[in-house]
Amino acid sequence: MPGEKQPAVRYYVGVDVGSGSVRAALVAASGTVVAHAEQPIQVWEPRPDHYEQSSADIWAACCSVTKEVVRGVDASQIRGLGFDATCSLVVVDKHFQPLAVNSEGQKHRNVIMWMDHRAASQVERINATQHRVLSYVGGAMSVEMQPPKLLWIKENLPESWEKVGYFFDLPDFLSWKATGVTARSLCTVVCKWTYTSDRGWDDSFWKMIGLEDLVKDKYEKIGNHVLSPGEAVGKGLTPEAAEDLGLPEGIAVAASLIDAHAGGLGVIGADVKGHNLPCENQPITSRVALICGTSSCHMGVSETPIFVPGVWGPYFSAMVPGLWLNEGGQSATGKLIDHVVRGHVAFPELEAKAAASAHSIYTYLNSHLDLIKKSLPVGFLTVDLHVWPDFHGNRSPLTDLTLKGMVVGLTLSRGLDELALIYLATIQAIALGTRHILEVMQAAGHDITTLFLCGGLSKNPLFVQMHADITGKPVVLSKEVESVLVGAAILGACASGDFASIQEAMAKMGKIGRVVQPNHEHKRFYDKKYEVFLKLVEHQREYRSIMNS
């Protein structure tokens, strides 16, 4: 009615810690991102396959970006706070002070990043046990999970191992910093630490791999109090954390999520009515959320557990409460594209021309491909150029971290045309890898009709179109580009009690922006590309067999 006072808008803060930066968003109950801020964080690479960070540096960045997005907002309207982060390992002593995860003894570098592959021999030994918990990670544990990293610390840094008070997954470290409560999220411990929602920790596994120390203290170091994602942690924000973050003391803080899972939460439950999609009027189990940034994750849910060879899971309630999660992945996607483009001899020319046209290097490359395609569809330019994208090993579905990247079809040309073509072939290889993962998931029992994309690479129209064309499935892009932050805010909204469930918050706060349909006229070409793609890894294994015989 005219003159009636409108109810105050309710806001939630989502904080996302990625590989190279921390971002925060102020999100309204409608799912609209009202304010957004970003700050870089430091990464150390002291030797090949070793990637480290500082938990103090990460928390300082969290505080900085949060203060920025809530500046000028009525504190009484901010209802909840949710965190997501990469599944990196944070190591602290009994007084929560940082411990070195390196031989140099640099204590401030107390985080082993998710993409760190130092524990290759440890994971090989763990997988050799064939313990029953491995059936929940696709049959083989990844070097990017936490048990091999814990074993590496015990075997290589005995001094740090003796002093350890707590090992945190980074998302859980953040909720502890905010609340003072050491509870862990079901998402992190199930997906990266072998916890199961029905049996908890399996003593026999930790004893078998040589980490019986963790069993002795009833798992206090890795978590013996587990909460569902979105559940309120403790009594909310502590006075100290409230001051650090610029938020009201006592507001609800949610049990956290891994960053990819937050992205899944932000997109997979959106209302699709009126978009003529095959998943309309179908259960959420017909959808896969593809979160694509530095790496990519493929999140599919099911009502009953589905065991997919080479794909992590099934994990119960790890993303959407009450549903089982399978998680495929590619260890290097955005990082691979950057590596290929920036390492090319024509990169300085690209950089100069992109700057002169006031475009990003990738917008410029996409435009350049349009110029050189002539009458052909852009994708057909790579008829003689093929890439196998596992420059950082294969996470899914081959679970082989020793695989290497391959490029077939190089010439002596060194110009911008050639850079554009290798860029295109790399994007296609990533999309072909997604097709490989989806086919394995479908063969195991998933029924997937639609892809929901989010993350940095979803802003690249070429990347999106190639995924639609190569998989043959429509791609849904969310209205809010920052779906991961919306997912984190959904956690805060649930912890506040403003929504009855995560599913309700997902439906109300997740919004569809655009739908990209596959071009079915190109199917034959991409079927042939896929055939070549699978031959590449066969040849790699063949020549390895010859060289090792």
Give the topology.
Layout: E1 11-17, E2 21-28, E3 33-40, E4 52-53, H1 55-70, E5 78-85, E6 89-93, E7 111-112, H2 120-128, H3 146-156, H4 158-163, E8 164-169, H5 170-179, E9 184-185, H6 186-193, H7 203-208, H8 213-216, E10 226-227, H9 239-245, E11 252-253, E12 257-258, H10 259-267, E13 287-292, E14 296-302, E15 312-316, E16 324-330, H11 334-342, H12 347-356, H13 361-372, E17 386-388, E18 406-408, H14 416-444, E19 450-454, H15 461-471, E20 475-478, H16 483-496, H17 502-509, E21 512-516, H18 523-548
Parallel strand pairs: 1-5, 5-11, 5-12, 9-10, 13-19, 19-20
Antiparallel strand pairs: 1-2, 2-3, 4-7, 6-7, 6-8, 13-14, 14-16, 15-16, 17-18, 20-21
Helix pairs in contact: 2-3, 10-16, 11-14, 12-13, 13-14, 14-15, 16-17
Instruction: Just name the CATH architecture of the largest domain.
Output: 2-Layer Sandwich
How would you classify the helix and strand content by structural class?
alpha/beta
Strand content: 15-25%
> What's the mean pLDDT score?
96
Can you describe this structure?
The chain has helices spanning 55-70, 120-128, 146-156, 158-163, 170-179, 186-193, 203-208, 213-216, 239-245, 259-267, 334-342, 347-356, 361-372, 416-444, 461-471, 483-496, 502-509, 523-548; strands spanning 11-17, 21-28, 33-40, 52-53, 78-85, 89-93, 111-112, 164-169, 184-185, 226-227, 252-253, 257-258, 287-292, 296-302, 312-316, 324-330, 386-388, 406-408, 450-454, 475-478, 512-516. Helix 15 (461-471) links the parallel strand 19 (450-454) and strand 20 (475-478). It is globular. The chain has two domains: 11-255, ATPase, nucleotide binding domain (Nucleotidyltransferase, domain 5, 2-Layer Sandwich), CATH 3.30.420; 266-332 and 436-521, ATPase, nucleotide binding domain (Nucleotidyltransferase, domain 5, 2-Layer Sandwich). The strands form five sheets. A seven-stranded mixed sheet has the order 15-16-14-13-19-20-21, sandwiched between helices. The model has no long low-confidence stretch (mean pLDDT 96). It is an alpha/beta fold. The termini are far apart. Helix 13 crosses helix 14 (416-444).
